[in-house]
Amino acid sequence: MTVFTSTGDVDPFLHVALRRGDKIYCESDAMVMMEATLDLKGRMSGGIGSAIMRRFANGESFFQQHIEAVRGDGDCLLSPVLPGALEILDVGTRQYLLSDGAFVAATSGTEMKVRMQNIANALFAQSGGFFVMETSGTGQVVVSGFGSMFQLEVIPGKDVIIDNSHVVCWDSTLHYEISVTTSSSASSGGLGGMIGNLVNSVTSGEGVVLRFSGSGKVFVCSRNRDAFVEWMKKEVSGSKTSR
Questions:
Q1: How do beta strands 175-179 and 96-98 pair?
Q2: Number of continuous H segments (helices) and E segments (strands) in the chain
Q3: What is the pLDDT of residue 228?
Q4: Radius of gyration over alpha carbons of the chain, in Å?
């Protein structure tokens, strides 16, 4: 049986212990180290159509890394793209939807599917656009968050509003809406309401938020991943310009 363990206090590795015959799959370039008893191959899981949709939904490469213990038990170390915490999710009776770049690795009994969002969510979404990643099957899925990770429990009658750039993943049974305002009383009808919501978003610094309702879990990270990505792009662009 494959065992996932998060190891390290700051920017942890994902330590994976595999028994002979075990298989896992992970995001492209996640492998840091593996023992010689393991084999690593790049595969296009689910065919070209699924690969294209995963590319749009989660920014993944067309090919995933598949690691198998073919010559005996073996260990490997994986690392997410962004620095931050890891969360090991048990999936089966509970499934999750994932934000951009959250997926790290999963056991072979699971599958990452693509769900189409409604038009309203897709137009405002920074995570996935018209498509969003969803877990299926039974096993474990590992996700990463930029910075520290925190688990929120959403209960009926108490909606939770979260900045979109801090959401890592959420229970698939939860209802969610994407908005540019945190006010439930703000006018939302017609062009005037839309402009008012946009002005409120700009002046408050809220940006896009997700409103969750129902019953389930939401995992959030402490750092704004979108702001970090934009900063990195500017730094790279600036360094190229200065040469």
A1: unpaired
A2: 4, 19
A3: 64
A4: 19
Tokens, residue 70: 């073919």
CB neighbour list of residue 53: distance below 8 Å, 6 or more residues apart = 114, 131
Number of folded domains that form the chain = 1
Give dist(CA 136, CA 95) in Å, integer: 6
Q: pLDDT over 90 for what percent of the chain?
A: 51
Continuous H helices in the chain? 47-58, 119-124, 190-204, 225-241
Q: How far apart are CA 207 and CA 65, in angstroms?
A: 34
- Identify each DSSP E strand in 27-130 by its residue range: 31-34, 38-43, 64-69, 74-78, 86-91, 96-98, 103-107, 110-116
CB atoms within 10 A of CB 175: 12
The answer to whether the beta carbons of residues 34 and 76 sit under 8 Å apart is yes
Give the Å distances, CA to CA, from 56 to 49, 60, 132, 232: 11, 8, 8, 21
State how far the Cα of 96 lies from the Cα of 76, in Å rounded to an integer.
25
Three-state SS sequence of 1-27:
CCEEEEECCCCCEEEEEECCCCEEEEC
Per residue in 193-224, pLDDT (tens digit) is 444 444 444 444 456 788 999 999 999 999 88
- DSSP type of residue 117: P
| Structural domain harbouring 220 | 3-241
List the CATH number of the domain containing 170: 3.60.160.10
